[in-house]
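Q: Could you fold this chain for me?
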Amino acid sequence: MRSGAVGGDAGRAGARGRLGMTIVTLVALAAGVHGVGPSRAQGQEPAKPAAEKAADAKPVDTVTAEKGRFEVAFEAKGDFDPVDATVVQFKPEQWALPLEIVRIIPHGTRVNAGDVLVEFDTEKLDRAIADLELDLAIGEKTVEIARRELPVTEALQPLELADMERDTLVATEDLARFLAVGRTLAEDSARFRLKSSEEQLKYAREELRQLEKMYKDKDLTEETEEMILQRTRFEVESGEFNLRRAGVDTDSALTLEVPRKEAALQDAAAKAKLMLEKTRATSALALEQKRLALKKAERDRVEALRKMRDLQQDRAGIPLKAPRSGIVYYGKQHDGAWTTAAVAAKAAVGQGVPVGDLVFTVVDPERVAFRVKVDEKDLHLLSPGLKGRVELAGFPDAEGAIALESVSPVPRDGKVDARFTVSGPAVGVKPVPGMTGSARCQVYSRPDAVTLPSSAIFRDEDGRKIVWLPEKDGAAPEKRVVKTGRASGGKTEIIEGIVAGDVVRSSRP
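A: Sure. Below is the predicted structure, expressed as structure tokens.
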């Protein structure tokens, strides 16, 4: 409660005097405790009067409760977002290489549904489609051949295995017979041919000797004799040559041909046996491999068809057209920011760009919302239906009415997103997406509120809100429990415990 009519400068002077006297008293008591009291009374100057000590004391800072208009308002800066917008992006299913821009619409252009946003040079894409069509035709023949070969391979498998078994048996039998009979017979034949040549030469020589003897004893014409002798001498000469050749052939047969034939038969038998084992071990696997190869060829064809369908769909998406009417923005909005700069850096005619990098947003300029990021400390100011005004940053005289539409339920980085509807046309200029502005919504207003600086209100050990009244007549400061209302701008509304004009300490005693 206020103490009578004491107030203003007189009240504050009295309070300072009482505080000074209290300080002097405490100093005197402390001096007595440390031995500078009565023991030093002799020979010392007399103590100053209490009034003088009070005058020397430092005054305590105080504040006075004021009465007047008190308002709580929510104020924040934000940006205007589109309410109705469509993101348009050429995002091909299959094509991944950059395409050259032939024509592109400028940022901020108003368009109708079906207008061209960007057109590319499709020569590379068209060539890829033509190449894939040829690959599909070849792949179709490959699959057809594999389908026809598979049943033939399945039918041939047992026949080929039977042939291999017969070949192995024949090779084994040929080797066994050669070892049992053939080798010896070949060697004996070679020796007999040599012996035959020797005997033939022997007979030819004996015949020549007998003829020469006979022609001497008989009366024959000289011409006939010479002819017979000449023929016989040639037979002897032929026999000598044949004998020499037979010797070479016999040596070759015994040292080369027969051993080589034996080695060849052994190799053939071993190879036939190995081939048979290989065929038995792998024929089923080879057949299964063909089946799997056919499945893969069929799957590859299906994949090629899908790729063709996707490429054709990609081609059908060029040129990229506006799906609706509105204003074209480069980029898209994310967390309140536009990616316009990143898209504008690539949106140049003649430039090859990854086609997925070109993103457009077609917005309805007539429908916008105002979006702000609100600190957690201000969340208590937001309530459903909160209304106010928004002022455009670029046009201070243009403003519109706003109403709180939604608040994100979970904060991020100490802030939440608040979205306001914007109703009624702005004065002179209408906001469009991408503009910024300042919002102000009156949360609370009272024309005759009693307020104190928030820094003069404290909490006691029980958690109650309190203020401290200055010392009075040397008494200790008084603690006063107060009931507070709202706080704003460094001031707090006092509901109970203090009235206008009351003086309180601005710091704890």
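A (continued): The two ends are 19 Å apart (CA to CA).
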